[in-house]
């Protein structure tokens, strides 16, 4: 079969970006399972397994297999229609789906270093503060695009950001949290979720901003569990009383101030992702050596 990827050259020094695996999949994103070879298991998530795969013996892809019962295929297809339209350099590109039988396959671009959480935990020591801030700015940039599209992620966390070469970070799994059936939820990400989302099920872009503050904490602590000494129950009890995580060791004040803004009680008082992006980019552009101990908590 003819290789028919749609390549969009954004920058001549970068690898081409692939939008959809074939012309057939531009309108009909369904591809045949037999055109995929699953090569190596990359990991197992809550809802299934992820493999490195190859499509039509040529194109390297990531294949997420969803445990049967995780979601209603009809709901997923509806969500996938929206996900296909979301295209941004800092969002994982959906390439194709296999939904005619279970397990559902979700085929996306492959990221060489896997999840940001594992990356931070394994390679954290080699990262500079400027790298960490740049990673935060990249996630904010992907989220600012979702914000513009009036789209909510609902499960923003370092485990749902993927890392490629040169610390490139892309937001993954947007839209999936909405269609995952609650019965499949053995685990709810309490420590990442805004209070109004936990208590009143009010998920908005501002609850994503709260989660982004937690993600910044993960970045600066090299993938440490948020609220490390507290249980989920304690977190739920303490947040309405005004408790917030203290500034992590070696975290610049400027960065902690950004996190803290994300954790404002009133969703309307939290910054937009657009603001978060420029603040982080501005910080990244500054000479970090001027940040002496006086600027650290
Ligand atoms: P998940 O089910 O999304 O939590 O994925 C489980 C693991 O598979 C992640 O922690 C990553 O290490 C890996 N993974 C998921 N998606 C990709 C991808 N597109 N490229 C590379 N690795 C991935």
UniProtKB/TrEMBL annotation:
Give GO terms: molecular function aspect only.
Answer: ATP binding; metal ion binding; non-membrane spanning protein tyrosine kinase activity
Origin: domain of life = Eukaryota
Q: Which residues form the Protein kinase domain?
A: 36-284
Keywords of the record: ATP-binding, Kinase, Lipoprotein, Magnesium, Metal-binding, Myristate, Nucleotide-binding, SH2 domain, Transferase, Tyrosine-protein kinase
Entry's Gene3D superfamilies? Phosphorylase Kinase, domain 1 (3.30.200.20), Transferase(Phosphotransferase) domain 1 (1.10.510.10)
InterPro entries associated with the record: Kinase-like_dom_sf, Non-receptor_tyrosine_kinases, Prot_kinase_dom, Protein_kinase_ATP_BS, Ser-Thr/Tyr_kinase_cat_dom, Tyr_kinase_AS, Tyr_kinase_cat_dom
EC identifiers of the protein: 2.7.10.2
Tell me the PROSITE patterns matching this sequence.
Answer: PROTEIN_KINASE_ATP (PS00107), PROTEIN_KINASE_DOM (PS50011), PROTEIN_KINASE_TYR (PS00109)
Q: Where along the chain is Mg(2+) bound?
A: 160, 173
Query: Hydrolase: present as a keyword of the record?
Result: no
| Binding residue positions for ATP | 64, 159
Annotated protein name in UniProt: non-specific protein-tyrosine kinase
Q: Which organism is it from?
A: Sinocyclocheilus anshuiensis
